[in-house]
Amino acid sequence: MLGDDAYVCAMPTLYDYPFSGNGYKVRLVLRELGIAYEYRALDILKGHTREPWFLAKNPAGQIPVLELDDGACLSESSAILVHVARGTPLFPSDPLSQTRALQWMCFEQSNIDGVISRARFRRAFPDAIPTRPEEFAAWLSEGHRALAVLEGHLSQREFLVDDAFSIADIALYAYVHCADQGGFSLDTYPALRRWLQRVRSRPAHIAIDDVAG
Amino acid sequence: MLGDDAYVCAMPTLYDYPFSGNGYKVRLVLRELGIAYEYRALDILKGHTREPWFLAKNPAGQIPVLELDDGACLSESSAILVHVARGTPLFPSDPLSQTRALQWMCFEQSNIDGVISRARFRRAFPDAIPTRPEEFAAWLSEGHRALAVLEGHLSQREFLVDDAFSIADIALYAYVHCADQGGFSLDTYPALRRWLQRVRSRPAHIAIDDVAG
After folding, report:
1. B95–A86 C-beta distance less than 8 A
2. In A192-210, which positions are buried (b, 16+ CB within 10 angstroms) versus exposed (e)?
3. pLDDT of residue B205
4. Where do the domains of chain B lie, and which CATH numbers do they carry?
5. Which of A57-61, A65-69, A134-138, B183-187 has the lowest mean pLDDT?
6. What is the ipTM of this complex?
7. Contacts of A79 in chain B (CB under 8 A)
8. Local structure of B48: helix, strand or coil
9. Which of residues 46-75 of B touch A (CB under 8 A)?
10. Which chain A residues are closer than 8 Å to B113 by Cβ?
């Protein structure tokens, strides 16, 4: 039986792999919105996300998963970001602006996550998946093309959509800020570096290794 | 000067590469919604999407791009689908259902488009980007894992979200229906094949090679 001063506060649970920028996106938006969460660290290299209990939460076997108070499990970081930010200033209300935010998040998924993040992972864990030099070279070329697109966009504005900080900035920040770990120098992207600094200077900002709920 | 019976009907223009499943997604949703469009076929293999006039429409240099009546250019197929389907029965109104639709579209982008579509492209144009057998083998394994996730989900329902046809079904159909061209047999996925047939039997359905506006 619970005492007088005990209370049960249902809060979402974030299943994450601490190295993952995709999980970091979710942590950043939860912090921005002041939503407390339980944190469950899993190790994808040890197969935790392929265990039956996790596949019941996300049959795709991928983190991040955000389990809501009612037991609903959300997967895919971009979808999670929209879900928790909907109706807040972090997701614009104007339809075209919403579309622009989604557009940047999709751009990130293919051109940053699929490229810069992959190079970062392969460099950090060279034994996990053997990688040939030609693969790194292809990612370097693709990744710099994506960074140049971002540089061009941000050279004319403060944030990605409507000059207001949004989940699009969170989604792009997650892997761009650690692009150097994938072998990408940001030296030639001054607007991009200024934007990183703007995102980093937000009061609710946390570093990628800060996994406290 | 326009005659009495002449009229100017501004309509969106779809910039597409006819082989692309991503462009096909946009054509499918426009047809479903009865939106007429101009069609501009570009050849990515000939560098059309890297020409300055196209980069002005999408700096990422990727099709599809949907240019709206007012000149706004939308890119990223998932974002385009949300934009044109918003407020229609093709995009659910319930927030959690909207999130589920986004979740499936993101799943597709990483696990189908990035895998099955890639294998299909490399098989169709073997000289464009040399591909090693090991790469095909890795895609085969990844792609079948994604198809098995879909099979599990669709074995219990008619459509991906809320048992109602939506842009999520359109987004997944585009590359799954031609998975065989990527070397993926769907023989062991009966629920998936029934779902493909349900999508195909919609009155507004068109084949991937039907590019008429």
Report:
1. yes
2. bbebbeebeeeeeebebee
3. 98
4. 13-85 (3.40.30.10), 95-200 (1.20.1050.10)
5. A134-138
6. 0.94
7. 99-100, 102-103, 106
8. helix
9. 59-61, 72, 74-75
10. 110
A60 and B114 within 8 Å at the Cβ level: the answer is no
B209 neighbors B60 (Cβ within 8 angstroms): no
Task: Decide: A164 and A92 in contact? Cβ < 8 Å.
Answer: yes
CB nearest B114 (choices: A77, A79, A114): A114
Q: How confident is the model at residue B9 (pLDDT cuts 50, 70, 90)?
A: low
Helices A167-176 and A21-32: angle between axes, nearest 10 degrees: 140
Q: How many contiguous H segments (helices) and E segments (strands) does chain B have?
A: 8, 4
- pLDDT per residue as tens digits for the range A146-204: 999 999 999 999 999 999 999 999 999 999 999 999 999 999 999 999 999 999 999 99
Q: Do A149 and B59 touch (CB under 8 A)?
A: yes
Give this prediction's pTM: 0.95
Inform me whether the C-beta atom of residue A128 falls under 8 Å from chain B C-beta atoms: no
Q: Is A135 on the interface with B (CB under 8 A)?
A: no
CA distance A198 to A155: 13
> What are the φ and ψ backbone dihedral angles of A60, each rounded to 5 degrees?
-75, -10
pLDDT tens digits along A81-119 = 999 999 999 999 999 999 999 999 999 999 999 999 999
A141 DSSP assignment: H
Query: Looking at beta carbons, which residues of chain A come within 8 Å of B76?
Result: 102-103, 106-107
Measured in angstroms, the CA of A75 and the nearest CA of chain B are apart by 6
CA distance readout (Å), B161 to A45, A135, A199, B66: 31, 37, 34, 25
Q: How far is B98 from chain A (nearest CA, A)?
A: 8
Instruction: Answer yes or no: are the C-beta atoms of A190 and A148 closer than 8 Å.
Output: no
Q: Give the minimum alpha-carbon distance from A206 to chain B in angstroms, rounded to a whole number.
A: 25
- Which of A109, A113, A118, A155 would best serve as a mutation to test chain B binding (most B beta carbons within 10 A)? A109
What is the spatial distance between Cα A170 and Cα A205, in angstroms, rounded to a whole number?
A: 10
Predicted confidence (pLDDT) per residue in B58-109, tens digit: 999 999 999 999 999 999 999 999 999 999 999 999 999 999 999 999 999 9
